[in-house]
Amino acid sequence: MHSRRLLKASHAQALRATSVAQGFFIANLFGILDSINLNLCAMADKIFLNDEVLSFHEDDLPCLITYVDKTGGSHFSITLVVDLFLRGSKILFLTAYPMAKDNFLQQVGSDHSKIAFVTSIEDLENVKNTQVIILESGNEALFSEVAKMLPDLAERVILVKNMEVFSKVVFDICLNMKRVILSGNIGVCRQRTHQ
């Protein structure tokens, strides 16, 4: 019976696919399957060392990750932060560009209930206890204000991605913290001789 329907199906009916929210895909193939619900959300990437998964802990910090463009350092940095997040670490996330945020969200998957997006200091009051606080990309003034007002700053892992873009203000805050990850191209970093 199904083979007859297969033969009768027109090319336009052969495959209809619709993307829906949060990484789900519904397909109707030749009318045989009413729907297939596949979870397409990404899984966290892994970092391998000598063919074994390497997991990071807050005790491994502070950390400096330096690289030039197109060598995988950005992805490595975000994967490290995702690993810490999945282990329960609280994160304060500052990047110069939104691609790092997108990579983080992709690796975390569709459950963003522990993630808050902050674009102004007013946003902080309602989300200050959230596990991950992602600041507006490139907004170092906001980072500076959040650092003054966030009661659990010393308990958070601070990621500064694209460190070469930021000023001395960001480094002054980070260099006083133990749980910090500075990531970017130190070769072009204006603050590489910071004292």
Give a topology summary.
Layout (H helix, E strand, L loop, with lengths): L1 H7 L2 H4 E6 L3 E6 L6 E4 L8 E2 L2 E2 L9 E4 L6 H14 L3 E6 L3 H10 L6 E4 L2 H7 L4 E4 L4 H10 L6 E6 L6 H7 L5 E5 L11
Parallel strand pairs: 6-11, 7-9, 7-10, 8-9, 10-11
Antiparallel strand pairs: 1-2, 2-3, 4-5
Overview of this structure, please?
This protein is of the alpha/beta class and 195 residues long. The chain contains seven helices and eleven strands. The strands form three sheets. Strands 6-11-10-7-9-8 form a six-stranded parallel sheet, with helices on both faces. It has a three-stranded antiparallel sheet with strand order 1-2-3. A two-stranded antiparallel ribbon has the order 4-5. Helix 3 (73-86) packs across helix 4. The radius of gyration is 22 Å and the shape is globular. The termini are far apart. Residues 1-42 have low confidence and may be disordered.
Question: Characteristics of this structure?
Answer:
Rossmann fold, globular, 25% strand, six-stranded parallel beta sheet, three-stranded antiparallel beta sheet, 11 strands, alpha/beta, 195 residues
